Amino acid sequence: MTAIRVLPELLISQIAAGEVVERPASVLKELVENAVDAGAREIGVSLEQGGVRRVQVDDDGSGIARDELALALTRHATSKIGSLEDLEGVGSLGFRGEALASIAAVARVELTSRQSGTRHAYRIRAEDGRADAPAPAARVAGTTVAVRDLYYNTPARRKFLRTEATEFGHCEGVFRRAALARPDLAWSLRHNARASALLRPQSLAERAAALLGRDFTASALPVEAQAGSLRLYGLAGSPQSARSRADLQYFYVNGRFVRDRLLAHAAREAWADLLHGDRQPAYVLFLELDPRGVDVNVHPAKTEVRFRDARGVHQFVLHALKRALSPGAAEAPVSYAALAPAGGTPVQHALGIEQPAAAYQSFIAAAARPAPLPAEAPHGAPPLGYALAQLHGVYILAQNDVGLVLVDMHAAHERIVFERLKRSLDAGTVQRQRLLVPSVFRAESLEVATAEENCAALEQLGLEISAAGPNELAVRATPAALASGDVAALARGVLAELREYGAAQALAARRDELLSGMACHAAVRANRALTVPEMNALLREMEATERSGSCNHGRPTWYQLTLSDLDRLFLRGR
Fold first, then answer.
1. What digits encode the pLDDT tens for the residues 421-462?
2. 3-state secondary structure (DSSP) of residue 208
3. CB-CB neighbours of 250 under 10 Å
4. What is the value of pTM for the model shown?
5. Distance in angstroms (rounded) separating the CA atoms of residues 386 and 401
6. What CA–CA distance (Å, rounded) separates 120 from 550?
7. Which runs of E-coded beta strand occur in 60-134?
8. pLDDT in tens, 350-409
9. Phi and psi angles of residue 112, each rounded to the nearest 5 degrees, phi first
10. How far apart are CA 356 and CA 117, in angstroms?
């Protein structure tokens, strides 16, 4: 039996490095966070060979005293916390005091720093976990950390590093996330002595445009919501900026980039009835709250967090985003009692949950007030104008004061019906219309059984379906908004949802998908001729409906061609 023994200090640091330092990008993340914590106004990043050869970060922050340079490379030495109370309310990005020591165990580190007001800078070098004595150096106030030859002394780990291009891509991602978090700072990125990014201090919108592209910012909607100590702000991408992958989703908690399932779920729910299929929303969002309300000491990489009032945070983010994505939307008010039980827990008392409660309720109430209809254009025409004609039974052509409006009548009507159904179901007042002649259709035995077992759920949706024979079902009543649609197809779609997911699941988690399908069946079909009054009525309903810019599947419902656009098409003025 092998005897138990204490591991050498270098091996301990190398083991710790395995958790903290996965690749050059991990090194870069730790160094830029230290620079931000030091109060830097300008941060420069230099890389060689994707960061494998060298990762260097220069800042103009507060600097490190000569006598503390060696401590900076020591495990569990930090200036950011000193007690359990500090740990429970961490306000800085770093706090464990492990990063530099772990990096120094698997790379060659050179640390040069000068505090403001001192006459000299000092440099210290570390290799194999051992540091030499500080020596005088030339540098303005601030700090430079150069990390060379990552994993030079642990070749087995070095073999897991990828190509230079791949490692640079990961480093670039870290740089982008850090620069997005602090648009008020100047940032630069150089790779193999070539400039990749030069960013001056700017607004969040300008920074997002520089790093993520103007296609995103051009259609992004501003987010700004506050309830007590909770604040959410940033940019929410429109349905048209959705992507096939979740690669443009940036969420920050108190300035820290996180990948949190609770926040990601709230965002997905907010966009749920705006996106089609597997399309992913795009956003850059910042959540601020009392540091005591979030635990960041969950994972070595510090990208996972836990909220003390998880449900309250989820509901706040969900409703704030829904409000931003549909200004003036009539969201159902949410009682704060459901988020913080009466009396509150000791943690909630400690966080002052009772005080934010009133502010949160006011926020939800504001979201519940419908906004006034869009203002009319200067010459009196409504925003979507007046109908001129119908094109191929699919599109409505309308004229407003700006130019020509093209409307996909099915997509637009689908959104109108969907929003009407949601409001009715939320209010518990789905208006039913009995059919003079029941719509009878052939059904499989499983469909008949589903209808009989889910009578209550069907009634909640405004449907009355009963057996009309061994292999037949009859729809005797439908929601009033759907009475003119394809009743049989509607019934089959609803029964399929109930059969696959069950009544409770279909009416809760899958409610919007269910209603979206119902609305699709009821919406005006292609090739149906509409009169000019009918077309104008549809345009006015669009103006009064939230989210009417896109259908339930995320497609646009209308498009504006200005007179300038038309002039360019016909080369007028040239």
1. 888 887 777 778 888 889 998 888 788 888 888 888 888 888
2. helix
3. 20
4. 0.67
5. 10
6. 62
7. 108-114, 121-127, 130-131
8. 334 444 755 545 544 444 443 333 444 445 689 999 999 999 889 999 999 999 999 999
9. -120, 130
10. 43
